[in-house]
Every structure is written in structure tokens, then in C-alpha cells.
Amino acid sequence: MKRSMWFLDQKDMPVNWYNIQVDLPEPLPPVLHPGTGKPIGPEDLAPLFPMELIKQEVSTERWIEIPEEIQEIYLTWRPTVLHRAYKLEKALDTPARIYYKYEGTSQAGSHKLNTAVAQAYYNKKEGIKRIATETGAGQWGSALAMGCSFFDVECKVYMVRISHDQKPYRRILMETWGAKCVPSPSPDTNAGREMLKKWPDCPGSLGLAISEAVEDAISRDDTHYSLGSVLNHVLLHQTIIGEETIKQMEMADAYPDIIVGCVGGGSNFGGMILPWMRDKISGKKPDLQIISVEPESCPKMTRGKYAYDFGDVAGMTPLLKMHTLGHTFIPPAIHAGGLRYHGMAPIVSHLNRLGLIEARAVHQTGVFDAAFAFARSEGVISAPETSHAIKVAIDEALKCKESGEAKTILLAHSGHGHFDLTSYSKYLSGEITDYSYPEEEVRKAMEEIPDVASE
Amino acid sequence: MKRSMWFLDQKDMPVNWYNIQVDLPEPLPPVLHPGTGKPIGPEDLAPLFPMELIKQEVSTERWIEIPEEIQEIYLTWRPTVLHRAYKLEKALDTPARIYYKYEGTSQAGSHKLNTAVAQAYYNKKEGIKRIATETGAGQWGSALAMGCSFFDVECKVYMVRISHDQKPYRRILMETWGAKCVPSPSPDTNAGREMLKKWPDCPGSLGLAISEAVEDAISRDDTHYSLGSVLNHVLLHQTIIGEETIKQMEMADAYPDIIVGCVGGGSNFGGMILPWMRDKISGKKPDLQIISVEPESCPKMTRGKYAYDFGDVAGMTPLLKMHTLGHTFIPPAIHAGGLRYHGMAPIVSHLNRLGLIEARAVHQTGVFDAAFAFARSEGVISAPETSHAIKVAIDEALKCKESGEAKTILLAHSGHGHFDLTSYSKYLSGEITDYSYPEEEVRKAMEEIPDVASE
Question: Is the separation of the CB atoms in B230 and B271 below 8 Å?
């Protein structure tokens, strides 16, 4: 019988996160203060984040030990399983070997729990009683709700309205774990109220929900802010995915030729690829192909500027050097709510700039075709976000079919789509359509990118 | 770091199902023909089931080899994980040790896939093109939809209407895997049409949906019927759960004092307990406590008759000796749709009769209290059916707290509740209520139990 799953024993779960900053061929550009245009210091971030996370943001240690309290919770669902997608390979009739690392077995259903638990822990340790955050598709909000429930921290989630309406189960999930969830724009903040005045039916965006959550955190002493992607410490926490996968691919006696992941803010993608990047940077595997996949309708990596920009619509965050479509850009209401973000993690942007990864953009209908091909072969119902990566994994497998090459494709499968079935239903009834690249909206938003010289 | 999950390597997955019939202290009463009152022969069942399954129904082999084609599909999600519920233990402040075997990671979300794959396989092998079935909560229907999609067999599902309306995502799931799903009572069969005439708003019941599916299968040459529980071959396929768990408890260096599982038709419960029953029957562990849990509103094990009765409302099936509330009984519309069945697997009924297991009935509000306690400690969102077992596991753990005993409790966790969040939402808004034992309805239904002498 062919083995199709590789379990990693719990005693072999990695006990360190990997900090790629130490191994980058060129250092990351600094984060700038929006007022002064100068690099920010730890104290500038202290109203938002606990000091431990701020230190991780700029750490010069290669390995950061995972605290025991976090390991203990990781062990309720980790290590996650590495699968070989034999049935998909057969359905595609490809010589390619497709592996997928599946984060959907976390209680919250995605990779997001890896950092949610860590962030809740460090906040609790610093005496914080309440955390405010935003969520797109709801994966992050429900993960943080659960993370906070483990450490008895209150949680308030601003959920992008279009997703809030598309995915009612996500809200119930957050409430089950004790969090409070409101649709964004909400009447609870200035940023929300202003938007509602201008555009009462605004579908919301991650950038706007971030403004609301940041404002909430700044305005209350007992409250911190928490971000589910983009920042260095978030990608750091996600590296446990890649570290586990390295061990599991070894168990499977395989090494990837291609690694594929979807990108919203870049944390799932980063979590998988950063550990593998060591081999690419060190020259051990220079031709390892690493592909990020984003929606055609929100194509920051393929069409965005590499520039200093805000993380949120209202311009409240520090300035990050990243691929961006402009912080005021509100992406079309695609079903992959988690990918509706104007910017990209500085680390991922930097790697792209250095030519270490390549970026692709795909259309929504192709994404759902891929989701159904996966569901009908492997059985797994994937999140629409993840299905972006599935689409490109299938594309690459089909190229192998043409060329006859038996490439090894590793897919970062970020989570299940059990709460996205409304979208699946729309696909079945032919209601999923493509959105073309919103050229005019992006052009306008690009003009709002602040004029900051890169040193 | 304390280990909290035990993976069983794929090479150690059991390759045989266990047939308890060989080891029963007394043989099972025969299945009777409803017309003649005599034991049925294989040919009587041939219009409904493939011959291989009919043979398994009365097999005298202790071990039945799992065909390679089925093993291969099992390996896409099996072996499933055994968990230690440390966080729940801590929340309850109990000295008890709680383990749970989690079937929720199957692509269809529950244990049902174990037999769905097997049934689809044997039907396909016999040249059957189409399978009709019923489903309560939708766990079975979606599992069979997926099983059929693996073997390219058409699938038609009659879904109990109350569940169909409560759980729209389940229908989408079935359609995603290519099945057709209609609410039952439906206008597609005589049994459905008759009920709709008498009671247009009928919420449906498993017994009625079975009538529809059986009628569908009988009326078409290319179609067989498939049942997701109750029958011997279904419990047989589920024994892989218990066989895996025995190996995993050994890995954990533990042995259960108490095993708990919920019962609808008895397949999840049977799948877990039958392999353990060997130790109890052989005298190796005579005091092993095995508890079945059912709803107060549908209490066949605790209040039903042990008698020959039909499996369906319309009286189309052979007569099974079992605990029954009467085949015409329509249970109240509790949220655990999978437990709304009037009868109980003959094997489980027989074991109860022999005093080898004990039965408990619990109320719905307590069940949801338990579901929330589990979700807020372990993080896992459980199906309302499963939560019946969680309720009793918690009760037993709390008894240990009082007595100071450190008993080992093994919970059969049959599946996740990702498609049951409407019920969770109702709990949060205080809308979950208890149904008292429907004494009058049961009394009436009991009168309809056919008058058949036991042998």
C-alpha cells in the first residue's frame, strides 16, 4: 500500500521558529515613522504590541525558541500532516508528484492559529486584557478568538463586511470561542463612521478594518492590536509550517522542485517558504522554484509598486517597504476575502525584489475550477484563498504532463473551506465570475502612496 | 512537553475489519422476512445490496480483509488521531484522564466515510451505477456522496427536511462531490408523496427517508440502496476506529476504564466498542464500562422495546430484532439530526440485552453546555451528535473529581460540527431548549410494532 500521509511525531515537532532576517543576502529596509520619515524605535510600537513581539520584529537571532506554553497548545493540533495527492495526480494524468502540507486540521481551520496562539500568549504575559483585530475571510478572526480563549484574553474582531455577510458561520465560530465580532466599516470607530458617511454600502477591506482595530487599540489602555499577517513576527511564527515540512519531505524521501502558496498578506506563504529559502540562499538548491499566487483583481506582487506605504486605509500604521497597490485601494469583492489586501509582507516583497521568488496572478473562475478538481479527487474542501495556490499547482502539474517531467510540487494548503460553501454553491449555480484588473482604482490609490525616499 | 496526540503510522493501519459475531456469547437473532416471518436469505436482500455486503452481514469469519482499493482511499485520511484532552481535564479540574479518538479529519467530517467508501466500492464492483440513500444530519449523505465520487457512482440522497433546512452547507457539500440531494419527505417517491399529503410540513425522520431511498432503489434496476448505520456490515466497516484506537492507547500506555459514544443507529459507537468488547467478553477486562448515549427525546436504548421491527416508517425493510420506539415514531426536531432514529443496530441492542453495555439518555441543553465546554477548552467544534457523548464523558470526569479517582475515559468523537453552527448560534442566543420524552407518541408508535414471536 502506498503511503500518502506523513505524520511527524510530537516529540519531533520543531521547538524554534526560524528568523530569516539573519540569512537575507541584503537586510530588510527599516520601518519608518509616518510623521518623521525616520526609522521607528520599539517605543513607537509599544501602544500596539507587547515588547516581546516588537523584539521579534527586528531580532538578530536565527532561531527563536517557542515558549513551552505555546508549544503545549501547538501540540493540541501539531504537527500537521503532509499529504501526497495521488488522487489528484491520477485525475490530472500527470507524472508530477504533488505533496500538500495541510493546515486545515487546526481547530480554527487554518494556519492562522500558529501566530494567534503566540500573540495571545505574549500579550497575556504583558498584562494585556483585551486585543482588537481585523479579519477578512474570518480565518484570522476566528483563530485569534480561539487563541485568546486559551489565555483568557478578551477579543474584538472587525470583520470586513462583504465576508461578514458571505460567511455567517465564521462569526458564530468567533462567538463560540468568546470573541465579539462586528462588520467593518462599523459605527464603533472614527475610521468606520467616516467611511459609512461617505459610502454606506461599503463592502469594506482589510485595510479599513485594520484602521478600525488600530484605532480601538490606541484609544484604550487595556487593549493591544494584533495583526494576522504582513509583519515579520507573524511570518516568524508561521515558520513552524515549513520547518515541519522539511522533516516530513525527508521522511517521504522527496525534495520539492516547486513550492506554491497563496498570498494575502504573505504569512502562510512565508511560513512555508522561509525555511526552504535557506537552501536557496546558501546555494544548496539554487534552482528551487518558489511561486506566490494572488488574485488578478488584487495583484500587488505582479502589478504593485515596491514602495513605502501604510498598512491601513486611514494611514495610521508605520510605513512599510512593500509591494502595494496603494493603501486606499479597496479590492473587488472576490470570494477569497483573505487575499483582499493592498500590500504584501515586507519580507516576501524583499525576496521578490531579490529575485528569489516569482509571482503569479490568477482569475477567480480558474481558482474555483481548481477547488472543485481538488474536492472531487482528494475529497478536501479548500478555502478559496488556498485554492489560488491549488490552481497554480495544477497548472504546473499539467505542464509536467506536456513535458513528461516528473517534478515534485509542494503545495502550502493553508486551510479548509467549510465556511466558504456559499461560494461553492455559487460556483455550482454558475454565479462565480472574474473581475478584471481594476486599473483605474489602482492608479488612483497609487497616487495616495506617500512620497518617501527609500533612504 | 506532554504528548497530547498519538499518530499511528500508515503502515500500521489495520488491514482487517473485525466481525464480532464470531465472538458473541449468544448468536444474533436472525433477520426476518416481513411477509413470511421466516429468516431471510441472501436473495431477499439482493435488490438492495451487493452480494459481498450481504455476505458480510452474516459472515462467520472473525477478520475480514479490507480490499486494497478501500485501503488506498482510507489512507487519504487514516489512521485518525487519538488525542488526550488535557485542556478539558484542566477546565474540569478532574483527576480523570480523557482521551478522544477524532474522526472529524475525514474529508467528509465524520466516521461515516469509513463505510461509505466500502459500500461504494462493493456496489461499483457489482456493476451498480447509482445508489440511493437517506441522511439525517447530513453526515452520512455527504460521506456517501464522497465515497461514490471516488468510484464514479451516481448518488441520490433523501435528506430529512428539518436537517436540510437547518444545515444548507451539508447539501452544498453533497453537490460539490457530485450527488443529488432532496429534502424528505419528497415528491419523488410514493412514501414521500403520501406523507406530504397527510402532513405537508412534516419535518421528516430517518425512518421516512429510508422508506424513500429503499423505494427508489427497488424501482430501478441500475440502483442499489445504502444504509449509513444499523446493519452488521456497516458496524463491521467502522471497527477500523476501535482497532486503531487499541493500538494508539497502547502507544499512550493507557487502557480505558470507561468508553463513551453517542448512538443514532449505532455505527460510530459500534465501530469504537466492538474491538474493545473482545477483552470484556474474554474476561481479560470484565469491568470495562461501556456507555451508549442517546437523546432523552429519542431514547430507544433506555425506553424502547427489544422487539422485531421495521427499519423504516413505511415498513418496507426486513424485520430486525432491536431496541425500538416503533418504526412510525417521528422524533422531535432536536439539533442532533443523526440521532433521530427509532431503532438501534441489532448488534448494539443484543450487547445491551446481554448486559455488556449500559445506556444513558441526556437532554439537549446539557449536550450543548458540553459542546461549548469542549470548544472553549480543546478548541474543537463538535457535532451535536458527538456532543451527547461529550456530555457523559464530562459527567464521568466530574464524578472522578468527587471521588478522587483517576479513571481513564475514552470518548468516541465521531465528527466536527462545522456545518452545525446554526445550532451553536441558537445556543448563544438562548434558543436551545429541551424536549421531554414524547411518551404519548412513543406509546402510539409502539402499538405499530409488528407482532412477531422471537424465533
Answer: no
Paired with A259 in beta bridges are: A290, A410
Distance CA(A84)–CA(B375), nearest Å, equals 30
Say whether B177 and A379 touch across the interface (CB within 8 A): yes
Please return the burial class of A27, using the count of CB atoms within 10 Å of its CB with bins 0-12, 13-18 and 19+: exposed
Average pLDDT over residues A366-386: 97
**CA-to-CA distance for B452 and B319, rounded, in angstroms?**
9
A362 sits in the region (left: phi over 0; alpha: psi -120 to 50; else beta) called beta
User: How crowded is the C-beta side of B256, counted as CA atoms within 13 Å?
Assistant: 33
Q: Is A176 close to B376, i.e. CB distance below 8 A?
A: yes
pLDDT above 70: percentage of residues in chain A: 99
pLDDT for the residue B219: 95
Q: What is the pLDDT of residue B136?
A: 85
Mean pLDDT of chain B: 95
**CA–CA separation, A284 and A278 (whole Å):** 8
A425 to chain B, any CB pair closer than 8 A? The answer is: yes
3-state secondary structure of B2: coil
d(CA B379, CA B377): 6
Q: Is B93 on the interface with A (CB under 8 A)?
A: no
Distance from CA of B106 to the nearest CA of A (A): 9
Which element (helix H / strand E) includes A280? helix A267-281
Who among B4, B107, B168 is closest to A379 (CB)? B107
- Which among B8, B173, B176 is the top mutation candidate for probing chain A, defined by the most A β-carbons within 10 Å of its own β-carbon? B176
Burial of A331 (0-12, 13-18, 19+ CB in 10 A): buried
Under 8 Å CB-to-CB from B155, ≥6 apart: which residues?
A: B130, B131, B132, B133, B144, B145, B148, B149, B174, B177, B178, B179, B180
Please return the burial class of A289, using the count of CB atoms within 10 Å of its CB with bins 0-12, 13-18 and 19+.
middle
Residues 6+ apart with CB under 8 A from A165: A183
Residue A154 lies in a domain: no
Per-residue pLDDT tens over the stretch B40-62 = 999 999 999 999 999 999 999 99
Query: What letter represents residue A370's amino acid?
Result: A
Which candidate, A357, A117, A142, A116, places its Cα nearest to that of A229?
A116
Tell me the CA end-to-end span of chain B in Å, nearest whole number. 58
Number of domains present in the structure of chain A: 1
**Residue B174: how many CA atoms within 13 Å on its side-chain side?**
30
Confidence check: pLDDT of A455 > 70: no
> Is A272 contained in some domain?
yes
> Does residue A148 fall inside a structural domain?
no
Q: What angle do CA A342, A344, A347 make, to 5 degrees?
A: 165
Residue A236 lies in a domain: yes
Q: Between A5, A11, A172, which is nearest B425 by CB?
A: A172
Contact call for residues A350 and A28 (beta carbons, < 8 A): yes
Residue listed under C-alpha cell 512620497:
A451
- B32 has which bridge partners? B39, B319
| Residue B149 C-alpha, separation from nearest chain A C-alpha, in angstroms | 7
The C-alpha atoms of residue B160 and residue B136 are separated, in whole angstroms, by 5
| One-letter identity of residue A289 | Q
Chain A residues with CB-CB distance to B381 below 8 A: 107, 173, 176
pLDDT less than 70: residues of chain B:
453-455
Cβ-Cβ contacts under 8 Å for B369 (sequence gap 6 or more): B391
What CATH number should be reported for the domain holding residue A442? 3.40.50.1100
Among B275, B244, B241, B184, CA closest to B412? B241
Strand partners of residue A39:
A32
For the beta carbon of residue B451, count every other beta carbon within 10 angstroms.
7
The residues with which A411 forms a beta bridge, in sequence order, are A100, A260
Q: Domain of residue B328: give its range.
A: 68-109+232-446
Distance between CA A101 and CA A114 in Å, rounded? 14
C-alpha cell at A21: 532576517
